[in-house]
Design goal:
Blueprint lengths: L1 E7 L5 E13 H4 L13 H11 L4 E13 L6 E13 L2 E14 L4 E7 L2 E7 L6 H13 L24 E8 L3 H7 L3 E3 L3 E8 L6 E11 L3 E14 L2 E13 L6
Antiparallel strand pairs: 1-2, 2-3, 3-4, 4-5, 5-6, 6-7, 7-8, 8-10, 9-11, 10-11, 11-12, 12-13
Length: 259
């Protein structure tokens, strides 16, 4: 690991300019001295350590990385982060990507984050705390399809404070995937998603104008269910209700298909 750069604390808005390279990291060796982690742990770091312990051959390397950032806290952090030539190995499977870029664009009362790579492009605009984003996306599923899903467990999660008078918490996510197969093959090998898959999610805490749009040119599960040209659009028309329009080009169950 090699790191160079400078951090300026002279002003209220701190400035960070860093560059780094990693020849290799074997994550399991870092945590080898720790006792096995309980599978019921709720702590995020302990969950990460447990994952590494279950996959002892995890390997990570990248040619170069850097950032040019400024801000007084995480919510108003502005600037860019880059990583080039990433290689990740797990369970004898390898994932590589040439570039990854993250742009942080804070506004007065919300933040936009743009993620670009040769795998996935995504834009997230929200005034939620970043750690709340996964829970808010799950909230959408349980708002409209709660009766079809397992009972939701709280797991000690505490919602963020209600938004101020006259404002509302919101989230808008748009993403296009170009080549997800190498990542899915490592983390979710039973699912296959073809190139140019798109998703758009828009929601707010009042659920007054929610939108879910998903387009999957090809999709399969466990090599037993194959879907071609799946297009789903859901638009809210009333509190807790959504008008849904879905079309599918082809569905094949039970054998591998050629589309």
């Amino acid at each position: 690991l090699a790191v160079s750069g400078d951090v300026n604390f002279a002003h209220k808005r701190k400035e960070y300019n860093l560059e780094a390279s990693i020849n290799h990291i074997y994550a399991n060796r870092i945590f080898a001295h720790l006792a096995p982690i309980d599978s019921n742990t709720k702590d995020g770091m302990e969950k990460f350590i447990r994952y590494v312990q279950l996959h002892p051959e995890i390997f990570l390397a990248f040619e170069s990385a850097g950032c040019s950032l400024s801000g007084s806290n995480l919510r108003d952090l502005a600037g860019n982060i880059y990583i080039d030539n990433i290689e990740y190995q797990q369970d004898n499977k390898t994932f590589q990507t040439d570039r990854l870029r993250v742009a942080l664009l804070p506004q007065e009362d919300y933040q936009t984050i743009r993620f670009t790579s040769d795998i996935l492009n995504a834009t997230l605009t929200t005034n939620h705390k970043l750690k709340e984003i996964p829970n808010k996306i799950i909230d959408i599923a349980y708002t409209y399809c709660g009766n079809l899903l397992p009972e939701r467990k709280n797991n000690g999660h505490v919602d963020e404070e209600p938004s101020e008078e006259g404002s509302t918490h919101f989230l808008n996510l748009e993403a296009t995937a170009y080549e997800l197969e190498p990542i899915l093959n490592i983390f979710v090998p039973s699912i296959h998603v073809g190139e140019n898959a798109q998703i758009h999610i828009r929601t707010d805490e009042r659920h007054t104008d929610d939108l879910i749009s998903i387009n999957l040119p090809t999709f399969s599960i466990k090599d037993k269910a194959f879907v071609n040209n799946f297009d789903f659009k859901g638009k809210q028309n009333d509190a807790g209700k959504m008008v849904v329009d879905a079309t599918v080009g082809h569905i094949l169950i039970g054998e591998k298909g050629n589309f």
